[in-house]
Amino acid sequence: MRQTPVACKLHSYERQRGQRDTMKLGLFSTCVADTMFPDAVRATASVLERLGHEVVVPREQTCCGQMHLNAGYRRDAQPLADRFVATFAEFEAVVCPSSSCVGTIRELYPQLLGIDSQITERVFELSEFLVDELGVEDLGAAYPHRVTYHPTCHSLRVTKVGDAPLRLLRNVRGLELVELPNATECCGFGGTFSLKNAGTSSAILADKCQSIESTGAEVCTALDGSCLLQIGGGLSRAGDHARAVHIAEILASR
Amino acid sequence: MKVTTESFAVAAERELGNAQLRTNLGNATSTIRAKRARVVQELPDWEALRDAGSAIKADVLANLDTYLLQFEEALTAAGATVHWARDGAEACAVVAEVARAHGADEVVKVKSLTTDEIELNATLAAQGIHALETDFAELILQLDGDWSSHILVPAIHRNRTEIRDLFRRTIAPEITSDEPAVLAEAARVYLRERFLNAKVGVSGANFGVADTGTLCVVESEGNGRMCTTLPPVLVSIIGIEKLVPSFADLEVFLQLLPRSSTGERMNPYTSLWTGVTEGDGPQELHVVLLDNGRTRVLEDEVGRQALHCIRCSACLNVCPVYSRTGGHAYGSVYPGPIGAILTPQLIGIENAPSLPFASSLCGACYEVCPVKIDIPRVLLHLREKSVDAVGSRSERAAMSSVGWVFGRAWRLRLAQRIGRLLQRPFVRDGVIRRLPPPLSAWTDSRDLRPIAPAHPSDEDSSTDR
């Protein structure tokens, strides 16, 4: 599916005009979203389906193995990665509402688990898939709220989604996008880091929550359920006005 | 190399409790971060420079044996005496021997992490030789019996008022102001006489040029140049990884280093010296080539890139962890992200098993590293080694259980169902505010989003594999 950039752009153009067949997309919901943010998974499916694609959420899927890989348990991650590959082998492209899971699959599977990058290159984070692969920036969404966007570390530095999420958010009707101060700093989640170094994790989070609060936003959105778990937990504990919402839910709103 | 035995998490909790430290660090790191970003942005070839820096260092490490012998030969030809030191003790012994030979009971020092690594000051003190730190910040720490918390700005955890009070207690009872100029003048008056009377100077080196035998020290204050030019005898201790192949290679690093470290286009003082020059500078030069664990780091294919480090400290300044905890939490002279990958490799993972976990893996360090050390990648590598060497049984069991649950989709659904039942007593107003240990580590400071209600279709598990 991933061809030369030019061919890719061309296909995107054709797709928008409805001249290309719809794709059969695998949706990798991720263990975190499946467990705590199922609405984001449903929203991801609905956004893609509205664009005319067939979305399949394989029931056999579980977890990409990121936690095991990041915590030093590479051997335990191997069967999970193999399982991911087997589950999603049949799809032209796999879309996932989490940049850290996509980063794990694209970067770490080939580096640490010997998985062919030709397989992993077909796995995309939702916003980059919409903007870079499909060439779509306006989904016809409406979300009449003041929103700030937290660029998660993996989306910035591993998956490298660029400004794709911002392009999508700018086209949402009624959405007032406000800039987050010190946006590129981590929220302090870091998987098991949030438990092993809970004090440090919370200190980093406190500053993130303060930045969010300073924008006066009602909603802080991001691409990753895991970071939203951290940010949402911090905002809620501090009694802050803002809440954490996954970007897919905003993009699916009408 | 001295390393505290307490875990990073424990040390960090203590440091986080120091509000003054948090404020000082927050201000200092954000200022340097912004300065660095400004001067890096103005170079159109910054990424090419990083690639070049990384490639030169990779070449040096791949051919270290050749370059070291070349360096030794060039130095000897230029009139220096070369000493090979397997560890810190051997290196310290060289300095002590030289000081004794010249009847010196005090040596003046240039700021040097390498000498901190080998605990030179303490070793010399035990033999009746005082090593006077002449770098402004190092002097502050020495006067107060404190230790460095930042590679480049050792007293970053101290503010002006604290320093004025310290000087009043020690070297300058008369000062009242905490203006930087007043504080610097007090240190200048105190140090000047010691520079002029010193018989032996001690330095590290930022770079050693293999083909010419030239040593290079990069600094901001000029104290380093005093130490390397005024005393008649100089001992320079250099880690074996600090070589560059040729003089021309300095062009790359003298652009990368100041912009990454102090956020300056060029540092104020760059001292270069090659052996002994009659009638100019020290007439006796000893160069100590220090291993102290470096060849062990070199053996590790993934970890060896840590030896690319040019000690700029850009990774510290952008690190969300370092900028909250400060350097002391890392328990070693090498703090921050680079310390988290260098210290465990130099002294053995079993002696610093918690350091590779002192990171949220945000990747900001890799993004700014002028020699492209993939710190997150090395952290993962060392985490695996740490788990294999000293991992706790309970954690291993927990990880295996989670792995088992993720092994089949029906198990994950079952676990979610059980979780929904177990969480019931804890959910209030849609969030969990309190959980028993070990999950209290989360809920002590954050609410937890509960496991979501089951979607009707999820309950049908007949098609699960």
Task: Please characterize this protein's 3D structure.
The complex is a heterodimer of chains A (254) and B (465). Chain A is α/β, with parallel strands linked by helices and 254 residues long. Chain A folds into 2 domains: 5-133, Rossmann fold (3-Layer(aba) Sandwich); 146-252, 3-Layer(aba) Sandwich (Rossmann fold), CATH 3.40.50. Chain A has 14 helices and 8 strands. Chain A has helices spanning 5-16, 31-36, 38-50, 66-71, 74-88, 99-113, 117-120, 126-133, 153-157, 164-170, 193-196, 198-214, 225-237, 247-252, and strands at 24-27, 54-56, 93-96, 123-125, 146-149, 176-178, 219-222, 243-246. In chain A, strands 2-1-3-4 form a 4-stranded parallel sheet, sandwiched between helices. A 4-stranded parallel sheet of chain A has the order 6-5-7-8, sandwiched between helices. In chain A, helix 13 links the parallel strand 7 and strand 8 (243-246). The model of chain A is unreliable at 1-20 (pLDDT under 50). Chain B has 21 helices and 12 strands. Chain B has a 6-stranded parallel sheet, sandwiched between helices. Chain B has a 4-stranded mixed sheet with strand order 8-5-6-9. Chain B has a two-stranded antiparallel ribbon with strand order 11-12. With 465 residues, chain B is of the alpha/beta class. The termini of chain B are far apart. Among the domains of chain B are: 43-292, Rossmann fold, CATH 3.40.50; 408-459, no CATH class. In chain B, 49% of the residues lie in helices and 11% in strands.
Q: What's the layout of helices and strands?
A:
The complex is a heterodimer of chains A (254) and B (465).
Chain A: H1 5-16, E1 24-27, H2 31-36, H3 38-50, E2 54-56, H4 66-71, H5 74-88, E3 93-96, H6 99-113, H7 117-120, E4 123-125, H8 126-133, E5 146-149, H9 153-157, H10 164-170, E6 176-178, H11 193-196, H12 198-214, E7 219-222, H13 225-237, E8 243-246, H14 247-252
Parallel strand pairs in A: 1-2, 1-3, 3-4, 5-6, 5-7, 7-8
Helix pairs in contact in A: 5-6, 8-10, 12-13
Chain B: H1 8-16, H2 19-41, H3 46-62, H4 64-77, E1 81-85, H5 88-101, E2 106-109, H6 113-117, H7 120-126, E3 130-133, H8 136-144, H9 160-169, H10 180-197, E4 200-203, E5 207-209, E6 214-219, H11 223-229, E7 233-239, E8 243-244, H12 250-261, E9 269-274, E10 284-290, H13 294-299, H14 314-318, H15 322-325, H16 336-347, H17 364-368, H18 375-390, H19 393-406, H20 409-423, E11 427-428, E12 431-432, H21 440-443
Helix pairs in contact in B: 3-12, 9-10, 16-18
